[in-house]
Specification:
alpha+beta; ten-stranded mixed beta sheet; two-stranded antiparallel sheet; 12 strands; 27% helix; 38% strand; disordered C terminus
Length: 225
């Protein structure tokens, strides 16, 4: 598989989602975070768009979201997040195991995702993620293997305050297993709000004197994705 070509293609898809302003329905607003959704064209489920402001520069935010070193310390949705294969400085494959959700009604899932970082004009960064088959990490009987269709973050300077960043996140996760779509639709918006809040807390902790010693350079995917 040409992982690099797939990664670049996925980043373009995320950019396309960001430019698409039609058909979105707001499903949750909380703490200045907005979650919208529309039917996914990839599977029988939803594509979610999540928007919020992070009081951090775009460069620092992108670095924080892209690198795996500290992910499980701040992303409370994840049990495991490991880079398992480095393709180049901008592209890697990560293995994720989620926590259970919705009072245990959604059991942990695992994902193997191709993660890619792309810097665009105007200091805009795209971090894309798409599930792939990776022979070294076949599905295990311990977890339901989920699938992330094209997901990602877009980080850009906030127009009115370029020292802060606008974060837009796109998630279309196929949980698989025997879940009712209604359970996913009921729980996903709150989980996505929590992700943004956790990211805010996590990057703030790394900036603090106590957090400095834990920062080793700096990533979803996905998101929970």
């Amino acid at each position: 598989m040409d992982y690099k070509a797939l990664a670049q293609e996925t980043a373009l898809e995320i950019l396309g989602y960001n430019q698409d302003t039609t058909g979105w329905k707001v499903v949750k607003t909380s703490k200045k975070i907005t979650v919208s959704s529309k039917a996914s064209k990839k599977f029988h489920g939803n594509l979610y768009r999540v928007e919020g402001v992070i009081p951090e520069s775009t460069t620092n935010l992108s670095d924080f979201l892209y690198k795996p070193e500290n992910r499980v310390t701040w992303d409370k949705a994840l049990k495991v997040y490991n880079m398992v294969h480095r393709i180049d400085s901008d592209t890697c494959i990560c293995h994720t195991i989620t926590q259970s959700f919705a009072m245990g009604s959604i059991s942990p899932r695992d994902f193997v995702d191709l993660v890619y970082f792309k810097r665009c004009e105007g200091n805009m960064d795209i971090i894309s993620s798409n599930s792939v088959d990776f022979p070294a990490y076949p599905p295990s009987s311990n977890y339901v293997r989920g699938y992330n269709h094209a997901c990602g973050y877009i980080c850009s300077p906030l127009q009115e305050n370029p020292a802060h960043s606008k974060l837009v996140m796109f998630i279309q996760t196929e949980m698989r297993g025997k879940l009712s779509p209604s359970i996913i639709e009921a729980t996903m918006p709150s989980n996505l709000v929590s992700f943004i809040l956790n990211a805010k807390d996590g990057i703030k902790a790394l900036r603090s004197p106590l957090g400095c010693g834990h920062h080793q350079g700096g990533h979803s995917s996905f998101l929970k994705n």
